[in-house]
Amino acid sequence: MARALRKNPLRLWERLYLLAHLLTVDVAHLSLNLVTCVGFAILRGIPIRHYFKCAYNRFALGRLSPREIQHLSPSTSSLYHKWIATTRAAAQTRVDSGRGTPDDRYILDYIHASEEVLPDGNASVLWVGDRRRASKFVLFFHGGGYVAPIQDGHLEWCLRAYVQAGQKHGEHVAVAVLQYTLAPEARYPTQLKQAADALAHLFKLGVRPRDLIIGGDSAGGNLASQIMSHLLHPHPEAKEIRLEHGERIAGIFAVSPWVSARTNDRSMSDNALIDMLSPTIIENLNHEHLGNHALYNAEKKRNQGWAMPADVDTGAWYKGLGKFVERVYVTVGTQEVFRDQSIVFAEGVRRTNPDIEVLLEERYDEAHDFILLEGGRKEDGSATRRMRRWVEGVFW
Ligand SMILES: *[C@@H]1O[C@H](CO)[C@@H](O)[C@H](O)[C@H]1NC(C)=O
């Protein structure tokens, strides 16, 4: 598959350089991150189990360039195909040995690889679930600072929180995972254009707004906030979305969303040493996502919040969103650098939209994106169960 090939592979000297810093200074950085993340978790009296992965992710985002990350990780599309194959094989093995559960049979029945290329020829939709037999849908945007491809944890989360919620209620939920172009190859607003194309694609397939939930984590939460903006204020560069018969989209969720380019909020300094992200990492990712900030700055000056809705008057920007969306769910950890900005975002939507049911959840024991870490461990943890409960409340 042509798109799975890397467009700009590391040259030989870049690979040698990567190997050299991985084997030397990075060892020290990783150890230091482990000490601070886990150490702060102990000091703050919270369970430490997820803080090891937190430290590792912060090391990767802080020490590796986007191209190095993309060199070391499989592309979104190839990871998806591999995940489908291993998930099916594991279910098949259990069924063959007589230890199969109803979940295993459900996976074998409904989970097949299916990828649909979107009109720009670069983005695609990767299905978790069988869209032909589905009555409810989720459009999912994965996080990773716009520089990292999807991880297994995202796909596990989609299976556990959405597909299995449908299974429980006797309806099939299919998740359309957007494979968007990563930065720095593509920057804002390319991913918004691709997300709008994906949404238009679903509507063309006959998906009704009231049967659809949209959302994502971190940078994917940013993309969800961009789509919220785009529904209300069509972005000049992206395809305009019209909802048929004035029907509203059932729900939009944003897990630990990245909704501001600021790095000076209180939560940034409070949590710089415990979270998976740090102000320095955010500065770098701002640059990867927004490039020279020219478009972002021009829009912000006009009080337009497509790129980062917490950097304008969020309530004023989203006033009227209730015509397009029924419910909004924002979840964030107390231990996150994004805590304050996520709260500003959710409260802004709530302030001007009495007709939207806004659920804002702040969890003391969590840092950034713990639902992803639960998915990475293939477990239905607290964040996964809370997401599933919210989806059940939206659809059933
Ligand atoms: C698709 O990606 C290629 C490589 O990044 C780029 O040159 C091209 O303009 C993209 N196509 C569209 C329609 O954006």
UniProtKB/TrEMBL annotation:
Coiled coil: none annotated. Residues 138-371 form the Alpha/beta hydrolase fold-3 domain. Keywords: Hydrolase, Membrane, Transmembrane, Transmembrane helix. The chain crosses the membrane at residues 16-43. Pfam families: Abhydrolase_3 (PF07859). GO terms for molecular function: hydrolase activity. This is Alpha/Beta hydrolase protein. It comes from Sordaria brevicollis.
